[in-house]
Amino acid sequence: MVNKLFVLLITLLIVLSSIGCHKSTSTINKNTETQVYELCRYTDTRFSFSLDYPKDWDADIDNTWKNNSNIPDSGIKVFINSNTDNFIWIYGCVGTVNGSPQDLGFREPKNCQKEIIEAKSGAKCTLYVTSDIDGRIQGQIAFDQFHGATINCDNKEYEVNKQKILAIFKSIYIQKE
Questions:
Q1: In Å, what is the CA distance from 51 to each residue of 17, 97, 130, 132, 167?
Q2: pLDDT, tens digit (0-9, with 9 covering 90-100), for 26-38
Q3: Neighbours of 72 (CB within 10 A)
Q4: CB count, 10 Å around CB of 45?
Q5: What is the rounded CA–CA span in Å between residue 152 and residue 80?
Q6: Is residue 94 a contact partner of residue 110, using CB atoms and an 8 Å limit?
Q7: Which among 47, 169, 75, 43 is positioned nearest to 118, based on CA atoms?
Q8: Based on the number of CB atoms within 10 Å of its own CB, is 103 exposed (0-12), middle (13-18) or buried (19 or more)?
Q9: What pLDDT score was predicted for residue 83?
Q10: How far is it, in rounded angstroms, from Cα 12 to Cα 6?
Q11: Contact call for residues 174 and 124 (beta carbons, < 8 A)
Q12: pLDDT for 74-133, tens place per residue?
């Protein structure tokens, strides 16, 4: 019983140390309207990356690989305005990220919006966003061969929160080994 409690406490400390809110703020100028919001920082020690996201948005750390060694990726889901139907999943993976420059089978989606992103780590990449007939958008971005992100949300939520979403992508720092 004592060993289980000790393991539980160590696990809890690891999880709490990987995510934490800090006093940094981000400012967005949108048509002369300024928004300032507090940020939380997530650090993924397995795949050596970190990012900032709005403190008032919920997040879910994906550590399922710790219990199942067959799962090759981990990261964080950030829920746009804390709505679990609208999310960004930023992850690292053991294999190659679909859409990375190294993925020779990648084809640019037709009829997509493209946003050029320069992450804090210096990675320059393209966010590809497509809309479906249900008024939802799907997007994908590859920061490098082992780090990527997907986005799935209502078109309206994407447009309203686009600057915050892009700020998350720009905040990504990938530590090179």
A1: 14, 18, 24, 28, 10
A2: 554 444 455 678 9
A3: 11
A4: 12
A5: 10
A6: no
A7: 169
A8: middle
A9: 94
A10: 10
A11: no
A12: 899 999 999 999 999 998 887 777 655 555 455 666 778 888 888 888 888 888 888 887
Banded model confidence at residue 8, pLDDT cuts 50, 70, 90: very low
d(CA 39, CA 13): 21
Bridge partners for 37 per DSSP: 26
Length of the chain in terms of residues written: 177
Q: What is the 3-state secondary structure (H, E, C) of the chain?
A: CHHHHHHHHHHHHHHHHHEEEEEEEEEEEECCEEEEEEEEEEEECCCCEEEEEECCCCEEEECHHHCCCCCCEEEEEEEHHHCCCCEEEEEEECCCCCCCCCCCCCCCCCCCEEEEEECCCCCEEEEEEEECCCCEEEEEEECCCCEEEEEEEEHHHHHHHHHHHHHHHHHCEECCC
First to last CA, the chain: 39
